Every structure is written in structure tokens, then in C-alpha cells.
Amino acid sequence: MAMKRYSVFAIAKEAMSYHQGWERAWRAPAPKRKYDVVIVGAGGHGLATAYYLGKNYGITNVAIIEKGWLGGGNTGRNTTIIRSNYLQDPSAAIYEKARSLYETMSQDLNYNVMFSPRGLLMLGQTEHEVRGYKRTVYANNLQGVETRWIEPAEVKKLVPIINIDGPRYPVLGALYQARGGTARHDAVAWGYARACSAMGMDVIQQCEVTGVRSEGGKVVGIDTTKGAIDCDKLGLVVAGHSSVLAEMAGFRLPIESLALQALVSEPIKPCMDVVVMANTVHGYMSQSDKGEMVIGGGTDGFNNYTQRGSFHHIEETVRALIETFPMISRLKMLRQWGGIVDMTGDRSPLISKTPIDGIFVNCGWGTGGFKAIPGSGWAMAELMARGASPLAEEFSMYRFREGKFIDESVAAGVAH
Amino acid sequence: MSKAVSALEGVSHNGFVAVAEAGLRGMITLRGDLASAKMKKAVKAATGTAVPARRRIELNGDKAAAWMSPDELLILVPYADAVATVAALEAALAGEHHLAADVSDARAVFTVKGARAQEALMKLCPVDFNTLAEGEIRRTRAAQVACAFWKSAEDEFTLVSFRSVAGYVMGLLDVSARPGSELFPA
Amino acid sequence: MLTLECPCCGVKAEETELQAGGEAHLKRYGPGSSDEEFDGYMFSRKNPRGVHFERWRHAYGCGKWFLAARCTATLEVFGTYPAQSKEPPAELQAKIKAKRPGWEGWK
After folding, report:
1. CATH number for the segment(s) C3-99
2. B126 touching C, CB under 8 A?
3. Would you give the distance in Å from CA B170 to the centre of its chain?
4. Which of A303, A306, A310 lies at the smallest CB-CB distance from C47?
5. What is the pTM (predicted TM-score) of this model?
6. Sign of torsion, CA B74 B78 B83 B87?
7. What are the pLDDT digits (tens) for A80-100?
8. What is the DSSP letter of A292?
9. Which domains does chain B have, with CATH numbers?
């Protein structure tokens, strides 16, 4: 089951047979009757969880069950931002773990995820914001996360197309993470899926969970559209659909599922090589390798499973960015889409045991899941394999009962 | 005594319709049981009108009574009469749970006048003007601010907003009325 | 664009006039309740994919609160009803049941 390595030599070799020898990146097996571990959800987080179960703990008798196509949920719909400039220590730990894993992911997975540490700025456009982000910089420096505060002149140097003069929202400076940036979201899912498959794990697509079975408070297995599957441990990693799965298992979660939209402009020549988040005006932007301006903003307002939002939010997001990036007013929108984000009250995730022994949940990443994929998978794998994980400890679903919120509404930035 | 001024002191613009800040107007927020006998008498005394039905405005010259919510009316009187009207309302409603507050200086009033007055507002407000009834007052938003408007005369709408956003609203109306930006062919 | 008819003032308001207010019919717990009850009231939510009952406020209109029944999977609106209702009106429940035979009921 060894994975055929991608390399320049492989390309040369395959060229000899007109590239007809390339193997499928992952197998498409029928599900077995039982696995040691079943992960529901073949998005980035679910696949990363399975991958680290195999890589870190040698647990490979694993199935990853996906109701649609792998990576087709939020993993394929986000705006690809990677950063770790959060405020609280537990957040910094897991997001920085994730960011550092992104640094070597292409090599680790032997799959080009196009990690681009191009730099990320969070603009300070009011006095309050400036104070808030400076505080975050100090916290980051204590946490070992490399961010610094930069003045308007340096912002203008990094972002030539930016308007720092306002008048309503002048740029008073920015929090700058030089090793923040982007990666290709689909490739992250594909890279993990290929590696999981090569380890002998079964990625079962087009397979919807219809029931969760437990006996005496312990998990037994799941029912699916492809039959019943038993397991010793079950991980629910389905983002916006977490409440649906939790309901099947017999408990409720402190999350609400909302629509989050994003859009791209028509492709234009390279004009911006950093990611800029403008949280006061409520929008953020970067430029893709195809030349499109990738733009996102805040969530829609009400519970919504349609992956489709209302157009006035797009209007508001673009309007918000126009003073700061005047040139975008001339661009046409090419495409707009949405996902389902599961929001917690403190804007921090749930990586947690549940009321059912053997069932674990990883959700609540809200609008900030993509940047966390490798860290989230690492922590969830540790939690499932060993019953505890320092990275996940503070993100228990029971923290709300104890008032131990990890309030990251500020760091969540635009999408709070 | 200070000299009272309206929000924009009558600034006006002429586009495909005429938009203007309408100067000082007396406005009173009146909360209470709209069905009570005392309320009916109090409103009649203040404006000469009946208590308006749901979403209606009862116009009577330079006075009016408008329905704002199931327990709130907007009483319009000449600016100089507002203080005395509040006192009269409080006396008339004594004994009943009520609130009469002079909000004349907290508001700005605008007129939109012309054959295409409706079009200028259609661009700003998420309102189906085809189903707007005669004598209806519609609370809604104009772009990003709260407002209320009614048809005050043939070819004229009167619009009320908070005073703090008067400049913004004037800007909206001015731009909305720009010649060349009419919505429908003549 | 979601359109909800406000039962207080009768306006068919589009969502930009409204402010969402979360799940409806929550049982409120306060002092004297158990940790589990209070935690449940404060944080646990049904968050269903399907028929959902919610609180809304007519923020840019009459300002009053009301309740709405709609589907989170299709955005179909079944109806709106007064905020003081302890449960969705029987008529509305019957209407929903007729449209969604598999619906398990409002609780």
C-alpha cells in the first residue's frame, strides 16, 4: 500500500509512458463491518485527525466517512488564510502548532499544498483597535508567536494599493505576522486523504450517517447509507452539521450553524502579495495565484444549512473595503459562494469528549477553521488515542458550564 | 434663551425631484394603551385627530398623529407648541401608565417632492411601494439608518430620521435624486 | 433574502429590517437551578437542519419581538407568530406537519 512518491523523477519517469501510469490519489473501498476508529467528516479536520492517528500513534484501522465528496464542505469553501495571532494562551498554542505544521506540510505529505507564507496584516483603523492589537502583539511575543506592530508607512510599503488616509477609517498601523499567509485549501484535503489512504485507512465518500448507536453509555457504531459500521471510538468532525450528528448520538452542542460567504473578483495582474484583514470596516482580502481578489466578511445572521447567504452581506463587505482599497470598486465579481460555519459563544472550538463514552467531537471552529486544520487534527488524534491532549484540554465542551470561556471574538477578526 | 435650529437649517437640492430638510417640527413620542378612552381624548386634544389605526397617519393641517408600534404614537405639532403639548398629554393621561417625550430636537425631517418622489425612495428603502396604502406611515431603513416616511401631499413624501444622521440622510437623498439616475422611463 | 411578516405591525419585512434573536421557546433557568439546567439554557441549542423556531426583532420597523417558523435547510418560511406564545400555534404546527410529514414535532 506504499504511496508512490511525487517528485521530479516521477514526472520524468511517467512522461515515458505518456503520463498514463499515474495512480489514483486515494482508494475508493467499500466500508468494512468494523473499524477501531471511525471519523465522520472527510474535510481537512477529519482527514488530519485520521492522518495523525496513524502517523503519531500507529492507529490505522480507521475509516473516514463523508456524506458528499471529501473536502467539499467548508474546507473547499474558505478563503485560505493561515495565521496564529490569537490572544489567549490555549488558542496561540493550537493555532501556532497548526501554522508550524503548515510550514512543512508539502514535504510531510508529499503533496504540494502551495503554502505561501506571504505575510498577514490586521489593520488598526481606530484607536481601540490599535490598543487591542498591540496587546495581542505583546501576548504573542510571550507565547512565542512571531507578530509585531508596524506603522502606517510600513503598511503602505507592504500593500501599495492600500489607502491609509481614510478619511473615515485611516490606517493607524497594523499587527503583522510575517509567516502568516495562505495555502491551497483543496490540496490540504487531497494531501491528507492520499496519505491516509496509503496508510490503509478507508475514505468512504457518498456515505451519509443516518444514526449513531450506543449501549450503556458507550459507543457501538454508526448506521449509514452504505450499511452499519461498528467502531470502538467515534470522532464527529462535521463542522456545520455537528448538531445533526450530536442529535443522533443523543446530546446537544453549544453551537449555531450560520452561513458564511466569500467571493472572488475577475483575475487581474498581481497587485497584492500579502493578506490584509480590516476588522473594523469588516472585510478582508488577498490575491490568489490566478489573480482573483479573494474577499470575505462577516457571517450571515440566522441559522442556515443551505451553503448560500443573502446578497446584502456581499454588498456590505465590498462597500466596507472600498475606502481602504479604492481600486476594487472597478472590479467585477466573478463568483460568490458560501459554507456552513458552526459558531460557539466564545468563538473558540470544541475538541472534546462527549456524554457518550468513546464519542469525541471536534467542531465549533466557526469562521476560522482552515488555518487550524493540522493543529486540530494533531490534538484530536491525541485526545482520541490517549484520552487527553494538552492542546485540546481547554477546548472541552464542558467549559461553558464552568464559565471558562476562551474569548477570541477580537482575534476571530472580521467574522465574529 | 437660545435660538433653536433644525438639523441642516433647510438645506435643499434639486435633482429629478426636489429634496430638502424641512426645518423645525414638533415631535412627541407617546407610549401607552392606544385603545384607552383617556388616550383617545388626549390625542384628539393634541392634534384634532383620532388615534390612528395600525400603520396609519392621521393628518390635520400642521398637526398629525402617526402609529409607530402597538403601544407607540408619534404626535406632530408646530415646533413652538411641543412643550405645551407634552404637558397637556401628561395631564390628560395622568393615572394611566404612559410616556410623553419631546423628541423634536432629536429628529430631522425631510421632504422629497416631485412626480418621481417614489423612485428616489425606492433606491434607499426595502419597501414595496406598490403595496403602500394611502395614509400609511412606513418605518424602515434608508440605506444604513432607521427612518419613517409617509405621503404628505400629492407628489410629496415626508421622511423622518434621527438628528445625528441628518447629514448622511441628506447625502442619500441628494445622490438618489441625481438627474440621470431615474429608475423608470418617463 | 428572507422575508418575514411582522405580526405586530403587519409589514412584510425583508431581513435587512430585522435582527435575528436565536432559538425560540427556550426554557429559562435562573438562580436555584442545577448547573446542567443553567448550562443547557445558556448554551445548548437544537440548531436543527430543518424546521426551526426563532426569535426576531423588527429593528428598523415597529421594534417589537416576534417568533418565526422556517426551514434552515431550504429557507422556506412557514409563518410568524407573537413573541408571547408558549408554543407555536396549533394551526401553524398543522401546516408544517402537512408540508413535512416526517417532522417530529416542535420540541
Report:
1. 3.30.2270.10
2. yes
3. 15
4. A303
5. 0.95
6. negative
7. 999 999 999 999 999 999 999
8. P
9. 12-23+106-176 (3.30.1360.120), 26-104 (3.30.70.1520)
